[in-house]
Amino acid sequence: MDIASIVTAVDTALWGVPMIILLAGCHLFFTIRTRCIQRRIPQAIRLSVTKDPNAPGDISQFGALTTALSSTIGTGNIVGVGTAIMAGGPGAVLWMWLMGVFGIATKYAETFMAVKFRVRDHAGEMLGGAMYAWERGFKRADGSTPWWAKLGAGAFALFVVIATFGTGSATQANALVGVISSNIPNPPAWIGWAVGITVAFLVSLVIFGGIKWLSRFCEKVIPFMAVAYVVCCVIILFMNGAQVGEAVKLIVTSAFTPQAGFGGLAGAGMAKAIQYGCARGLYSNESGMGTAPIVASAASTSNPARQAMVSMTGTFWDTVVICLLTGLVIVSTLVGDPEAITAGGITAGAQLTSLAFSHVPVIGTPVLVIGMALFSFTTIIGWSYYGNRCVAYLFGKNAVRVYQVIYVFVAIVGGVGVSDVVWTISDIGNALMVIPNVVCLLLLSGMIARETNHYVWDGHIDEKDDTPIPQDARK
Question: What's the CATH number where 205 sits?
Fold first, then answer.
């Protein structure tokens, strides 16, 4: 058995029935415990563009949201959707979408938890995430932390660091090379090196500047690129208008029934649609992974519920809107051209997405390539922040610079070419992160539900939480 087969076997085991039950169950559980917080999406969108003056934090709520979106609105929305359809059939799109709808509640809960238990470092900057929730949420009366809580905190931080190299760095550069190569006739052999080195250089200019510089960059870039991508998707759907209805029907029916080969795709059963739809859905919006709350903890916010509501809009935009549009674009294109995959020799998700966008004359391919470049770039810098915080938690601030250098180097390696194995490894890293994060969430669910009732449903969303924010003992 070769390495690829072993990695695939591990991925299949981790993303089997138990993980799907854990993740989907968490989404449903918090939808109920928060009294369907998804109903507050319109209010949350308004809050995301409203300043919270005199609130403690390092960056604005909108800055925290766009920085988190920089890591979620990325290749998962473009190549990830294509990869899911290639492996799980059109039905995978519905499972991705459902994971997004119910995942909104989990994103709210994990952000609430992170902001609730955030701390300050010695420079006065905010630190937060599941590792601090484990550490502070279960303290005994004497101020000590149980060994099992320390284990949960350390495991989460370690899995985040490991996952950043795959999900945050290598796969992004790899996907970017794939899209560019798919749209250049006879791409040169050195294209991977060129893209990898260029990305690494540009990323270095940003990530060494700190969270404030990072958030300012994301505030300007993320809204622009997201709107441009959505507009292009809408244009393609308008052009594919006659096939959109059939595409929706195919997506829904394929999600619950075995699907015969279609448009050159291999046949896929319901189990595959669920597995790849849920895995790519998590990869896209990160609900349940606990990553976005790390940057949300730096936001200037009066109370945990306010930032939690802002953060949950990220899952709405990322999966409920953008991933759905991408899925409809790809499937409607295949409905209109059933033999496109076979005729084009399509073997990977990047090629499948490129095929769909090539149907838009003049602007289709440039928008995809430019969008992928920006998506990949911002995802890499967003995930670097997660890694920075977790490395500092595990090894101290002095280790951050070493981590950043390795992180940038991995982007070059990803550009050179690591095939679909990288996506599989990313799925594994994502699954490992979910476990300690979701367990902590469930253990603290009573507190989250109780305070959500007070802040959200009793109308105290602007109330200031005067609980002192402690200083982290680490240096």
Answer: 1.20.1740
